[in-house]
Design goal:
With 190 residues, the chain is of the alpha+beta class. The protein has one domain: tt1808, chain A, CATH 3.90.1570.10. 22% of the residues lie in helices and 36% in strands. The protein has 4 helices and 13 strands. The protein has a 6-stranded mixed β-sheet, with helices on both faces. Strands 5-4-7 form a 3-stranded mixed β-sheet, with helices on one face. β12 and β13 form a beta hairpin. The relative contact order is 0.14.
Length: 190
Amino acid sequence: MSAVAWPDRLLSLEDWAALPEDNSHRVELVEGTLQVSPRPVSDHQWALKKLTRQLDDQVPQDLVVLPEVEVVLFDEWPSTIRIPDLVVVSVEAARKSPARYRAADVRLAIEIVSPGSVRTDRVTKFGEYAEAGIGNYWIVDLDKPVSVAAYTLKDNSHYVVVGEESAVAVTLPLPAPFVVDPTMLLPEWA
């Protein structure tokens, strides 16, 4: 078995597209540098499934909910590509079935906090998504009590909170009115 030769320089979008597929890890491109994380654990995947179901049942016909797609935040070199846990995009954008979405296509990015991703989700991606112009960002925290914090972009520069709730169903207004029940996001065994 031969080892894959990973690049030893900052990567462009073309370099990213040429990398071998690796489903054993989550790999993102951050300012041209590969950022590797372990695949999410069962509690995270359960929450992802349950949240997707809740949103699918409410999403307007012109929008679609998609899990774990590549989003190009910054295409200029050195590029940044993130893989939010969930995104909401227009059906029109999804019909094109792109290899990766542009930040302008994403109406809502959702991250489910995992051990090891707290700072990335709450600080780094919070700033990156705002700078890239993603209109809405939710952070789902699975620590009990499970909570959902919803933010919307203000003045195309920074996020402001529009909803934050735990343990009860909450209506989050943007990009469409969604009612989310955080209590349903953890499995019974958690």
